[in-house]
Amino acid sequence: MRLLLVEDDDVLAQALQVALVKNHYVVNVATDGEEGWDYAQSFTYDLMLLDVSLPKLDGISLCQRLRDHHFRNPILLLTARDTSDDKVAGLDAGADDYVVKPCTIPELLARIRALLRRRSTAGSPILYWGDLSFDPSSCEVRWQEQSLTLSPKELNLLELLLRNPTQVFTKGAILEHLWSFDDPPGEETVRAHIKGLRRKLKQVGATDVVETVYGVGYRLKNVPQPLPLESEPDEPANSDSAAQRKAAQTQAAVAQMWQQFREPILARLEAIETAIAALEANQLTEDLRADAEAQAHKLVGSLGMYGLMAGSDYARQLEQRFAAGVHPPEQINLIELLRSLRAALPNDGNSVSGEHPSQQPSSFPTVQTTSHGQLPPTATTPTVLVVDPDPTATTELATAAQQWNLTIQVAHSIVQAQAVLSQTLPQAIVLELAFPDAPQAGLQFLERLTQDHAQIPVLVLTDQDHFHDRVAVARLGGQGFFTKPLPAAQILQAVAQSCQQIQAPEAKILVVDDDLLLLQRLQDYLQAWGFLLETVSDPRQFWQVLQATQPDILILDVEMPHINGIELCQVVRNEPLWSSIPIIFLSANRDRETLQRIYEVGADDFINKPVTEPELITRVVNRLERSRLLQAMTEQDPLTGVANRLASERAFGRFIDAAQQDSQPFSLALVTINHLSQINLQYGHAVGDRILQRFGQLLKQSLSPEDIVARWLGGEFILGLYGLDGQTAQDTVLRVLTLLEQEVFLLERNVTLHLTVRGAIASYPVHGQTIQQLYQRADSTIRAAGIGSQTAVDIVALTE
Q1: Nearest 5°: CA angle at 220, between 215 and 223?
Q2: Residue 368 has what DSSP assignment?
Q3: d(C-alpha 86, C-alpha 142), whole Å
């Protein structure tokens, strides 16, 4: 989880950062309100901690600005102001919690966990996925009765997925949540941690917890079996001891942090001592008084964080005395307060007069812990709220939704929909615009949804196909407009896509420009938006860097020494491998001749210098989206979303090259859906299309993203399994295809349809040296065997 800490007290900020990092949070620190605002604009944070008394922009104003700009995650205010009016002002500004300094680090950590728990779909202090549980307070992970030992990053990764069970995370999003931007690793690090987490879960029997969404990222799979709705009567025997161990660890960490930050904290006492000495000599200036007040104020919070509540209270009294204005007779009281403050600090017995106080140094407080009752886990199947007065339409959607792994909640009126939303938030909403007694109720409800639940996609389904309704829906943020009558499968396909909408995967950009200052500025612009950037200032190094980085888009300056950008563009377009990469040109010249030249050699876009961030980002994103759309159109099967024959043959070629070079096995699986032609004739092609879509979806979800999943013809799917020999590949394919035994397709008039599948495995180099030879061997084996057993899955084994 990534947190933003905005605190102007550098010592306190550093101490808090150390404590949060030790508890597996990724923390960025800003020292004033404006810097905090800049951080918030540039990165995604799961929670923000804001000091109220900040320079440039105070914490309450920053909180209000964040809420005005739709920052929805928790905000926790830190302050030494404890009056009711201060708390009301902070909460009214949009804060979720208000912590008054002094506050101990264990209490602060508990409040952070509570706010993150509030934000997530699970309300329990313990996060669940079936029999898997994770206690954030003790960092203990258990599968049934077995305890797992995970690395800090694996714990962070598991917590991120458990708190967002229905969300798909790209590798870039995981990097942003779990690593500091100061030194982020590459995406291969995410894959390594995912692999490590899966391996450790599998060792205790927790298989298929984290799934790969093909071409996108990772998420939790659906919980295989629902747990009882009520908590187990007995807590695990060691839950209290685990919490106590965590409390002891926290206490030890706080003591260690005190030793680390003791000297800079004690240095603040010197400013107070100097002010008291000046007061005694009748030489106290306003600057000395203000400095002493400020240092005492900082001590109130920093000492409280270490549980030194007595010292924090003495510091508060000193702050109040200096704030009210002091006079020479009062220095004795101030000396006594300072002596008491020093005595309250661990291992420090020095007093103002140099005498040893009789009071013994205080120790760090004991953290009290309580065990929490278990709550049932939250289901991970996406929930869709259908708001429609037509019971026939809602029943049809609810029935068909079983094939799309969706749960349908039905509301036949706006009032019912509001009641549902007050209890739980769905992942998507399907809304009818017209209601019998209120023709405008649908649009009014859509406007309210946009204001209160902007993160939920709303798709409009109506029998009123009016242009002004389409415009109104678009203006209000609706993400789909469908006109009745429409097949339920088409509606649910759009709903499923909306539920899985996420940011596009990170893109790599290669920028070539001889202006080093411009390169630095472009780097600042693009990296702030999550792009991976490689820069080249000498165009003679371009080709080497291009081949090494494999970018998704090129940005070229026109005028450069040695080789200009137009010549580089020609070189790129002459190479078939790079003929379709988007190329954007930069130039201070906007004359007709320059523009004509760059477009003639194959430019996709042009940006005039000086470059502004909004224009740069807009054009880069547009070109990437267009490039990916064209790539999908040319490389994906439009019906199933898996690779088509052209794209998969190229991928198979790379597999064979790698297998030759690394002496690794490689297997091709040919899988065919039986009787697909008869199904199309008897039930219609719409049913056949549903079967193909679901089959493709199952294959993509069940196999690794490194595997090849392709549809070549009709009901024929081709799988490429690198690193697997024939027997291992056969076991893998059997496991995947056995899922079809659980698939029941519901047709009209409650007719059910079960599928059967047959297939064959051919392995390189045993059964062939080329992709065509492997395919022919598998195909001939299937044809020779015919449709064998009546089981749902029939995999034919090849002989040597």
Answers
A1: 135
A2: P
A3: 42
Strand partners, 535: 511
- Mean pLDDT of all residues belonging to the chain: 77
Residue in the structure block whose two tokens are 């789909």: 480
One-character DSSP codes across 162-220: HHSTT--B-HHHHHHHHS-TTS---HHHHHHHHHHHHHHHHHTT--S-EEEETTTEEEE
Question: In this structure, are strands 508-512 and 553-557 parallel, antiparallel, or unpaired?
Answer: parallel
* DSSP calls for 697-737: HHHHHHS-TTSEEEEEETTEEEEEEET--HHHHHHHHHHHH
Cβ burial of 199 (10 Å; 0-12, 13-18, 19+) is exposed
pTM of the predicted model over 0.85: no
Residue 374 neighbours by CB distance under 10 Å: 21
CATH number for the segment(s) 383-499: 3.40.50.2300
**Collapsing DSSP states into helix, strand and coil, what is residue 153?**
helix
Q: Say which residue, 124 or 227, is predicted with more confidence.
A: 124
Residue identified by tokens 């580089």 is 568
At 558-602, the pLDDT tens digits run 989 899 999 999 999 888 778 788 999 998 777 888 888 898 888
Answer CATH for 645-796 from 2.40.10.120, 3.30.70.270, 3.40.50.10310, 3.30.70.2190:
3.30.70.270
Nearest CA-CA partner of 722 in 782, 795, 664: 664
Out of 2-6, 101-105, 731-735, pick the least confident.
Answer: 101-105
Length of the chain: 800
**Local confidence band at 798 (pLDDT 50, 70, 90 cut-offs):** low
